[in-house]
Amino acid sequence: MFTIASGVFILAVGIATSMILARVLGPEGRGVFALACLLPSMIVTFGGLGIGPATAFYVARGDFPRKQVLGNNLLIALAMGSVGVLIGVVIIVFFRQRLFPGVNPAYLYFVLAFIPIEFLAAYTRYVLLGAQWIRKFNYVDIGQAVLFLALISVFLLGINAGVSGALACMLLTNIITNVLCLMWAKSAAGGVDLTFNTAYLKKSVTYGSKVHVSNILGFLNYRVDMLFISAFLGPSAVGLYAIGVGLVEKLWLVSQAAGTVLFPQVSAEKDEKRRKEFTPLVVRTVLWITALGAVALVILSRWAVLLLYSDKFLPAVGALQALLVGTVALSAGRVLGSDISGRGRPELNIFIGIVTVATNIVLNWIWIPRYGISGAAWASTVSYSISFLGGLFFYCRLSGNKWYVVVFPQRRDLEVYLRVSRSLLAPMRGRVGRAAWRRRGVGSEEGIDKSKVAGKGDGKRKGRVGSDE
């Protein structure tokens, strides 16, 4: 619930941020910004080796000293960051016109500075997740969202620095928040040990390589459409599409929260019965909450785009609506993928990813020239739906659960929701109770002596005071 609450807050901040970017930069500038940021994201995703998820997996299981995990991750991040920058230079020199037409090469060279920082973030932040420091894990995202909004408010609204100003804000935000993340990761690990642990490196690369391929396929499934749109239609169309995708992906905040918490829980859980009951509850809850959000967005989409981004971005509405069915399906598919990885079978997600990416590429190639950005949206919806069905198939085979138990609400769900609601409200009731006691003078200098309140002959009151404290 804390992760969902953080996601809602980040959603509100993100909408404000996207409004400023869209209104100041316009469709073409917004598309150039999106394409420039895509370059470091591609390199970090392709070169990540899956070390981040492997870190969470082994920290949750307690297989290696946390100090060594963090220390070895720092060394790997330094090496991969250096290699990533060199790869980025090669891409700009030889493939810029094909992959990033219309983007100033100065922007592309500038964003190469993101690469070592993003590697460092990916490898240190997962220490927090594996240690189940969920609040700190979310504080990093919250800090990043708030700081980026504050900086672009100054650079774009204040001095109208354009795309270069927005990219500079992104770099400064990443530096500050990742320093904070590293401090917390060091605290969670109990320090940093830079001694090479070959057993950890071998196991993390073995496990991580499976997750890594799955992450690459997932990234392609989410972002290959932008490359096709850029190639066929240009940066302005990318800017329109990015607005639609950005709004729709806000519906994933519940599934992101669920997947974030579920992965270390499943990795650490030894009781198969608990795992078998817990994941279906999470999946069907996420699925139907996201479906309700999608219905609301269908009704409000045109009004939301007009209000937030101006009439220049109204062509994004058709693509936004076409993405909604696939977004609902993938919200559940992502949670199923977290469970599958948490069981130590990330290679199954690779099989799903290969099929979905192949489908996405073929459909984008056929539909974008015919139907524009709406064709890209429908291609994504089809591939997202296939991803969900594949995850559902493998999960049911691994867990022994029936598919309808995973998808449809069950009789006991309401009881669980009520119990969770009561547990969330309990601290509030406790604070109200303590405030009432203080108003009656209990525990204050002017009121009744504490020793009398908690003394002999008043067992009921003593029990209540003890439980409130």
Give the helix/strand layout.
Blueprint: H1 2-47, H2 51-61, H3 66-99, H4 105-111, H5 114-130, H6 134-158, H7 162-189, H8 198-233, H9 235-249, H10 253-268, H11 272-309, H12 316-342, H13 347-371, H14 373-399, H15 403-407, H16 413-439, H17 450-453, H18 459-468
Helix pairs in contact: 1-3, 1-5, 1-6, 1-7, 1-8, 1-9, 1-10, 2-5, 2-8, 2-10, 3-5, 3-7, 3-8, 5-6, 5-7, 6-7, 8-9, 8-13, 8-14, 9-12, 10-11, 10-12, 11-12, 12-14, 13-14
Please supply descriptive tags for the structure shown above:
469 residues, 85% helix, mainly alpha, disordered C terminus
Write a concise synopsis of the structure shown:
This protein has 469 residues and is an all-alpha fold. Helices cover 85% and strands 0% of the residues.
Label the overall shape. globular
| Helix/strand class | mainly alpha
Number of strands: 0
- Our Rg estimate from Cα atoms comes to 24 Å
Query: How many strands, what sense, and barrel or not for the largest sheet?
Result: none
Structural notes for this entry:
The chain is an all-alpha fold and 469 residues long. The two termini are 23 Å apart. The protein has helices at 2-47, 51-61, 66-99, 105-111, 114-130, 134-158, 162-189, 198-233, 235-249, 253-268, 272-309, 316-342, 347-371, 373-399, 403-407, 413-439, 450-453, 459-468.
